[in-house]
Amino acid sequence: MSLTAKDKAAVKAIWGKIGGKADAIGHEALARMLVVYPQTKTYFSHWQDLSPGSAPVRKHGKTVMSGVAEAVSKIDDLTNGLLTLSELHAFQLRVDPANFKILSHNLLVVLAIQFPSDFTPEVHVAMDKFLSAVALALSEKYR
Amino acid sequence: MVEWTDFERATIQDIFSKMDYESVGHNALARCLVVYPWTQRYFGKFGNLYNAAAIMGNPMVAAHGAVVLHGLDKAVKNMDNIKATYAELSVLHSEKLHVDPDNFRLLADCLTIVVASRLGTGFTADVQAAFQKFLAVVGSALTKQYH
To answer: Can you name a GO cellular component term (chain A) (predicted)?
Structure first.
């Protein structure tokens, strides 16, 4: 299920539309994930406040989205491009890779809300494939 | 027995009372066939599913999407007894249609995304949680009679 040229173009196009809203989208997706999939809160026991709108959630949403931005820029070779991030997730954060799917789903939900007419089925499948490829690249160093 | 909070009950009733079943059903099923193309295996008799445009424009997909959505009505009206309500449909999906239960989750995800785009910011995280819980319960009930 590798990314076709059409997929890459669709991802770059919607990323272009996202523009400056990336941080807000990252926050929204993360906030949703923590509410809809409470088991994900186990990774953030060190935060005082896990509620939507809180400072740590905002900040972390931004961090996550800058990672996604990096992935978009390295879309032609995600495995090598995201090696450092993979090492971080594998050796330090040790996030169960199942959670990548969960966050991806919430990102797609936020995109559907923010871009109801742009988030067509074709853009949806391209983004879903892209986020799956990112998840795979992030899992590279796990074992 | 599934426990529903008052908020969850109200949210589900609210979403479905305002829903355009034909449109949402059509869009959710079509999206599923586009985003997860292996789901097309169940629709060999539907004709042209060659690309996204063909799928979106296919009248059989539209009709069947509505059938599926109206099927969800049973659960909306019997939230305290979803498992029993879907016993027959579960047997149907297992014995006759031979649908891999993982597909219930895939369709649920597409339905969530379509409803999200319709409700916009009204589809808050809490509403999303209630909606996804509801669809997960339906999926579980539909899987119950598989063996």
So the answer is: blood microparticle
- pLDDT < 50: residue spans in chain B: none
CA distances (Å), origin B132, targets A50, A91, A107, B26, B107:
20, 32, 15, 19, 11
How far does the CA of residue B123 sit from the closest CA of chain A (Å)? 8
Contact A41/B129 with Cβ under 8 angstroms?
A: no
pLDDT digits (tens, 9 = 90+) for A44-82: 999 999 999 999 999 999 999 999 999 999 999 999 999
- Can you tell me the ipTM of this complex? 0.85
Helical segments of A19-120, H only: 22-36, 55-73, 78-81, 83-87, 98-114
A135 neighbors A96 (Cβ within 8 angstroms): no
Chain A residue numbers with beta carbons less than 8 Å from the beta carbon of B118 are 116
Q: Average pLDDT of A100-127?
A: 97
Q: Which fold has domain B6-143?
A: Globin-like (1.10.490)
- Give the residue from A122, A128, A131, A132 with the most B CB atoms within 10 Å of its CB, the best one to mutate: A122
Residues of A in contact with B129 (CB under 8 A): 35-36
**pTM reported for the whole predicted model:** 0.91
From the number of C-beta atoms within 10 Å of its C-beta (0-12, 13-18, 19+), residue A8 rates as: middle
Q: B23 touching A, CB under 8 A? A: no
With CA atoms as reference, report the closest residue to A72 among A7, A24, A23, A117. Answer: A7
| A20: DSSP letter | G
Hey, are the CB atoms on A31 and B125 less than 8 Å from each other?
Answer: yes
Contact B34 A112 (CB under 8 A): no
User: In this structure, are residues B114 and A110 in contact, taking their beta carbons and an 8 Å threshold?
Assistant: no
